[in-house]
Amino acid sequence: MAFGWVGKILDVDLTTRRIGTRDTMPYARDYLGGRALASRIAWDEIPAGIDAYDPENRVIIATGPLTGTLAPTSGRTIMAALSPRTYPLPWYTHSTLGGWFGAELKYAGFDAIVIHGRADSPLYLEVRDGEARLISATGLWGLGARETQLVLKERMGQQAQVLTIGPAGENLVRFATVQHSEENAAGHSGFGAVWGSKNLKAVVVRGTGGVSVANPDALLREVLQAGKFRISPRADILGTRRKKERRPICTQACTFNCFVSRYGRAADGRLVPSQCVGQAWISEGGLEITEYTGGGVEVPLCKNFGPSKDVQLHQLCNGLGLDLWFRLVMQPWLIRCKQLGINEIRGYLIEPEEVTWFESFTYQLARREGLGKIFAEDLVRAMDELEGELPEELIRLGRELEFDFGFPAHREGRLLDGEPLPFWVISAMMHAGTSRDPTIGTHESSLLHAEFFLADEGLARRQFRRLSEKVWGYPDAFEPTFENKAPVAIWSQSQHMLIDSLPLCDFAFPQLVRPMESRAEWEATEDILGDLDLGRRLFLAVTGVDLSWEDLMHVAERAFTLERAMLARAGRSRKMEEALAPHFELPCRSDGTLIDKAGFSRLLDEYYSASGWDLEFGWPQAHLLKSLGLEEVIPELDECRREARNGDLKA
Amino acid sequence: MSGSKRIEVTSNLCRDCQACALACSLHHEGECNLSLARLLVSKDMARYEFQITICQQCDSPDCIAACPTTAMWRDERGVVVLLEDECIQCGACADRCPYHAILHNEAQDRYLKCDLCTGREGGPLCVEVCPVEALTLSEATIEVET
């Protein structure tokens, strides 16, 4: 009997409408679950070189061994596929979402679902206690995400859980989401459009089973112990916590009072939970983080329209199934257009600071109408479309705002966030190494700790030197230099992979810094290292599988390497990653530091070398692949190298 | 002594983490299974409201009166308990409960109700794991002459 995993993966072919199953456990030993498991299935089953809308693209929906258990924050779900959003090419990537879907899927007897093919008319997948069937979704097509969920809950019961796309996904908007519950979404990677291309409207699941736990007493002990960590320590330390504020959670089994959550109120009086960017949407002045000036780039303040209007817009976006992030890049870009005297684009008036205009623009995006036809392709592709028609400054601005292979700038120390040296260097390496915004999964493993340095640099440096010695075996991991940062970036990426595979939430794990109750306690503390082992112990308690930290990191490295190999065979190489360099020639928002192209290239050398990748392309080398048990990948990457070199010769 | 302890519910504090139900089934059944928990957290998505259903340890329990066997009784601590070994799955208790707090697991055809974690040193586990005090143990002691 397996503990943690429920044992089956559901296989759905939308073209033939055939449904089958396979066993989970052959994947579990080397890939655990979630994102790591998805990487193996994707490598084996998504053909190289296809487009995101090819029927052979796979939508992989995966839980991990902890999903559905009491392990804190574990109720998460991972989605993976070739993404239509990655720029300039469709690359394999992932999104994770909180909520209640993954747990319900396991209670219905499945660890994961793999969907491929394309239906000839809209369908939804219904899963109920070990059984699955495809049902016509013609009547649901065109409905918003909230309405779709309410309809399907009416059919299946209130306890059923639903993933669904809105009109944006149906209309192949490149930043369309797969929505769940109020605000949970696989939001960033454009998977809503992949579902739309497959004529897949929704997946609804109801399960009455459970997840067996190897050591219930140990799990309870860990949870009760971790339960003491109920408030983000950093918020206290920095004095930003609103003590009396009651905060929503975004996933089953989360017992924490997360500082990135808050409630808004809908027009009908209903409470509306929001997290992170959603919180910025509905908070007074929450979007003002966009303002930046430097290196010839001007990003104006983004504008809130007031809590009640913003909640309405936030609800609209979640209903249409648009990634909330679009507002953080498109609104300031459009405001800058106005500042430069551009009042219309291709005959369409722009009024980005007018709420009625912005609301209409949001509808147009989801429907691909008017200006929406251009911007539904995402900002960076809109810049390609509009190049030559608009001042060069605007084209450059759009490209900087989505510098990260088509994803909005995030935690790179310039636009939106101000991580000082060395945090933005760590972030830059991670941006170079992955196919999507990597910083969304690395808040607690590295990037958010920048806030300690911004609060009291001297104190933080003393504490983090000691922490660095303990975790990485050398003192200067967080010193404000450009050297010795690759080990932190790689460690942070591995933690991200583990968190996405067990799964856990990256706002709570890994616990690199221990919980502290007050600024006074922080100031009196020399040793701030937290309980890094907690995730491993939760895994042990649930599964009974006694893996060491080294074993778990090995799993993470194996899956990350497979993801990297998929990038290699889909045309990503060092040249494209060097093209990120100009973004880091912009001065850091908080300390003005920057790096030139030669310096950025040296960072890549350090990062590639430490990762076991070649310096020519940045691809995994044979010795690394062998050490991870991925020998079968070697010939394919050798062939990629031959082709790339031939291509260079021809060029 | 009778009706001395019960779990008080403040549903509008609930955030749907399900920690109570997961801990409950883990403690009683050794697995995380919302359908085997002795309490139910349900959500009305249309209104974004949550409801927690759990036994209120009534002073004059209808469930005991309804039970045709000796499966339901009030123990020496005043806790209304359901002895599964003696239950004949007739459902009379669940039908009569004014709180709908006797839960039926269809897959296993079992009736389940809260026993305030009888024998657990720390008291009811759901109360201990609830992070928002939507569940609290009422300590108001009502001495009953016997």
List keywords for this structure.
heterodimer, A: 651 residues, alpha+beta, Aldehyde Ferredoxin Oxidoreductase,  A, domain 1, Aldehyde Ferredoxin Oxidoreductase Protein, subunit A, domain 2, 4 domains, 4-stranded mixed sheet, 27 helices, B: 146 residues, Alpha-Beta Plaits, two-stranded antiparallel ribbon, two-stranded antiparallel sheet, 4 helices, 9 strands, 22% strand, globular
Give the topology:
The complex is a heterodimer of chains A (651) and B (146).
Chain A lengths: L7 E6 L4 E6 L1 H7 L2 H12 L13 E4 L14 E7 L7 E7 L3 H7 L4 E5 L6 E6 L2 E6 L8 H12 L4 E4 L2 H4 L7 E3 L3 E3 L4 H7 L2 E7 L4 E2 L3 H11 L6 H5 L23 E5 L5 E5 L1 H6 L9 E3 L2 E3 L7 H14 L5 H14 L4 E2 L2 E2 L5 H13 L4 H4 L3 H8 L5 H10 L21 H11 L16 H6 L1 H16 L13 H16 L17 H5 L10 H10 L5 H21 L4 H5 L2 H4 L12 H15 L10 H6 L6 H17 L1
Parallel strand pairs in A: 1-6, 7-12
Antiparallel strand pairs in A: 1-2, 3-4, 3-6, 4-5, 7-8, 9-12, 10-11, 14-15, 16-17, 18-19
Helix pairs in contact in A: 1-2, 2-19, 2-22, 7-21, 10-12, 11-15, 14-15, 16-19, 19-22, 19-25
Chain B lengths: L5 E4 L9 H11 L1 E2 L7 E5 L4 E5 L8 H5 L5 E3 L5 E3 L9 H5 L6 E3 L4 E3 L12 H5 L5 E4 L8
Antiparallel strand pairs in B: 1-9, 3-4, 5-6, 7-8
Characterization of this structure:
The complex is a heterodimer of chains A (651) and B (146). Helix content of chain A is 41%, strand content 13%. By secondary structure, chain A is α+β, with helices and mostly antiparallel strands. Chain A folds into 4 domains: 199 residues, Aldehyde ferredoxin oxidoreductase, N-terminal domain (Aldehyde Ferredoxin Oxidoreductase,  A, domain 1), CATH 3.60.9; 142 residues, Aldehyde Ferredoxin Oxidoreductase Protein, subunit A, domain 2 (Orthogonal Bundle), CATH 1.10.569.10; 158 residues, no CATH class; 31 residues. In chain A, strand 4 and strand 5 form a beta hairpin. Chain A contains 27 helices and 19 strands. Chain A starts with 7 loop residues before the first strand and ends with a helix. Chain B has 146 residues and is of the alpha+beta class. Chain B has a two-stranded antiparallel sheet. In chain B, strands 3-4 form a two-stranded antiparallel ribbon. A two-stranded antiparallel sheet of chain B has the order 5-6. Chain B has a single domain, classed as Alpha-Beta Plaits, CATH 3.30.70. Helices cover 18% and strands 22% of the residues of chain B. The radius of gyration of chain B is 15 Å and the shape is globular. Chain B has 4 helices and 9 strands. Strand 13 of chain A pairs antiparallel with strand 2 of chain B, so a sheet runs across the interface.
